[in-house]
Amino acid sequence: MTASHILTRGQGRNPLRALLRGTWREWRSAELRVLAAALVVAVAAVAAVGFFTDRVDRGMAQQATALLGGDLAVVSDNPLPAGWPDEAANRGLDTARTASLPSVVFGKDDQSRLAALRAVEPSWPLKGEARTRSGLDGEEQPRERGPQPGTAWLESTLLEALGLQVGDRVEVGDLDLEVTGILAHEPDRGSNLLDIAPRLMLAFDDLDASGLIGPGSRVRYEFFAAGPSAEVAAFRAWLGDELEAGERLLGLDDANPELRTAIERAERFLGLASLMAVLLAGAAIAVAAHHFAQRRADPAAVMRALGARGRRVLLTYFGRVVLVALLASAVGLAIGFAAQFVLASLLGGWLDGDLPPPGARPLVAGLGVGLITAVGFALPALLRIGQVSPLRVLRRDLGLPPTSVWLSGALALLAFGGLLYWQAADPQLAAWVLIGTAVAIALLAVLGMGLVLALRPLRNRGGMALRFGLANLSRRGGLSAVQLVAFSVGILALLLLAIVRVDLLEAWDASIPEDAPNQFFINIQPGQEQAFADRVEAAGLERPQLDPMIRGRLIEINDERVHPQDFDDDRDRRLVDREFNLSYAHTPPAHNRIVDGHWFGEAGQDPDRGWSVEAGLMERFDLALGDYLTFRVGGQPIRSPITSVREVDWDSFQVNFFVIGPPPLLDQQPRTFITAMHVPEDQRSAQNQWLREFPAVSAIDVSAILAQVRDVMDQATRAVEYVFLFTLIAGLTVLYAAVQATRDVRRREAALLRTLGARRDHIRNGLLAEFGTLGLLAGLLAAVIATAVGALLAWQVFEFDYSVNPLTFVYGIGGGTLGIALAGWLGTRRVLDQAPLAVLRGPE
Question: pTM of the full predicted structure?
Answer without folding.
Answer: 0.66
